[in-house]
Design goal:
Layout: E1 2-7, E2 12-20, E3 26-35, H1 37-41, H2 48-70, E4 79-85, H3 89-106, E5 110-114, H4 115-119, E6 126-127, H5 154-157, E7 160-165, E8 170-175, E9 181-186, H6 192-202, H7 209-217, H8 244-255, H9 272-303, E10 310-314, H10 321-333, E11 337-339, H11 343-346, H12 351-362
Parallel strand pairs: 1-4, 3-6, 4-5, 7-10, 10-11
Antiparallel strand pairs: 1-2, 2-3, 7-8, 8-9
The structure holds 5'-O-[(R)-(carboxyoxy)(hydroxy)phosphoryl]adenosine and zinc ion (ZN).
Length: about 375
């Protein structure tokens, strides 16, 4: 089954062709992402109206490029998947309108996909054998080594514990199947990627903050224990996250603790070593915050007699080198198979939409022409 997939929820216009085969295998024949980063750079954030206009201009050329790269004609497509939630409403509308038009004119099924849940599929995506070595999935990458178990057959995956960590979302899920998903925990304030971006700005790092902070923290000689930053546990059983206290702690470490609402004036500029140590200590604290909650979720499921078999991960922050190593160590410790996305599928892309879209179509969950663009997540 060949699916064309579209993703326009924020500031990337993306199109992809994926091929669903037996035993839960999904191969990416093309994945094209037209980024708008330069367009929004001068505003230090995404401007919704600019984003939707840019999607209008980019959507058809991006679809054309995805089809050409896959060597597929529109007539060969078996369905159209589109990320229809959550996201910026004007941006989502462009993808949804394009997908509906194609599905209607080709008389093919239309499948609306939740973007956040689609991130969980990104570790399942297989690269097309015909493509060059640079694009091969690096499931085991990060300094973690080759501990990732190959989990192609779906019956090995479920029940699965899902972790999405991105710039807009930080949540954990229980998946009985691709279509039976419940959220078991989420951030009560900042998303983890957002915390990375804000702390990167505090440390004077340029956009994009997360990857630059990761690079700084990976410096040789970094002392990740230089600062004992707070790790929020919320309550002994909570599976939720909070990153705002940690962010404030880094702010105070950089600018000093304010007295009567004013920061100390005589705080000296950070040395290069201090910046490296701050980045490494922050990174240690964020990763610890995630692994504590994952281990709680794993233990709780085991105690209830419904243990997880795999850990599915996705979202921009799964590109983080330390997080990848820690997840690769955590999963086998608990007997779980780990699916880490290849680096190119950590960020927003349409292949993951086609991946989850195909699973929904197989389980009879196609949408109809009433499909709406919805700003909020489904779970
Ligand atoms: O999933 P994504 O592309 O977009 C959203 O849906 O939000 O995630 C982008 C987020 C940004 O906050 C970015 O700073 C973060 O992922 N990110 C990282 C790394 N690479 C990207 N954060 C930490 N370490 C990284 N290596
Ligand atoms: Zn995303």
């Amino acid at each position: 089954m060949l699916l064309l997939a579209l993703e326009t929820s924020c500031d990337e216009t993306a199109a992809s062709v994926v091929r669903h085969e037996g035993a839960g295998r999904c191969t990416v024949l093309s994945s094209v992402v037209a980024s708008q980063h330069e367009l929004h750079a001068e505003y230090a954030g995404v401007v919704p109206e600019l984003a939707s206009r840019a999607h209008v201009e980019a959507v058809l050329p991006t679809i054309r490029e995805a089809l050409t790269e896959a060597g597929i004609g529109l007539g060969m497509i078996d369905g159209i998947a589109v990320g229809n939630r959550p996201g910026l409403i004007g941006s989502l509308l462009v993808g949804v309108a394009a997908a509906k038009s194609l599905a209607w004119s080709l008389r093919k099924p239309l499948i609306g996909v939740d973007h956040v849940l689609a991130h969980l599929y990104s570790g399942v995506l297989q690269e097309d054998e015909r493509q060059d070595g640079n694009k091969r999935p690096d499931r085991t990458s990060g300094s973690a080594g080759a501990q990732t178990r190959e989990l192609n057959a779906q019956h090995d995956l479920f029940p699965a514990l899902g972790l999405v960590v991105s710039g807009g979302h930080t949540a954990i899920y229980r998946l009985q199947s691709w279509s039976e998903v419940s959220r078991v925990g989420s951030t009560i304030d900042d998303a983890m990627g957002e915390a990375y971006d804000k702390v990167a700005t505090l440390l004077g790092l340029p956009h994009p903050g997360g990857p630059n902070l990761d690079r700084l923290a990976s410096n040789q000689g970094a002392n990740d224990k230089a600062h004992d930053f707070p790790i929020s546990r919320l309550s002994p059983t909570s599976l939720d996250f909070s990153f705002s206290g940690l962010k404030t702690a880094v702010l105070y470490a950089v600018r000093g603790v304010p007295v009567d609402g004013k920061y100390p004036p005589d705080k000296l500029a950070l040395t290069a070593q201090e910046r490296v140590d701050l980045a490494a200590s922050f990174q240690r604290a964020t990763c610890k915050a995630l692994t504590i909650k994952l281990e709680r979720a794993i233990s709780a499921a085991r105690d209830q007699g419904t243990p997880y078999r795999s850990l599915l991960t996705g979202g921009g922050v799964t590109a983080n080198s330390r997080l990848r190593s820690e997840l690769a160590a955590l999963a086998p410790r608990h007997g779980l198979g780990l699916l880490l996305p290849a680096m190119r599928y950590c960020m927003d892309n349409a292949a993951m939409i086609g991946g989850l879209g195909g699973e929904l179509l197989k389980s009879g969950q196609a949408s109809d022409m009433g499909l709406q663009a919805i700003p909020t997540a489904s779970r």
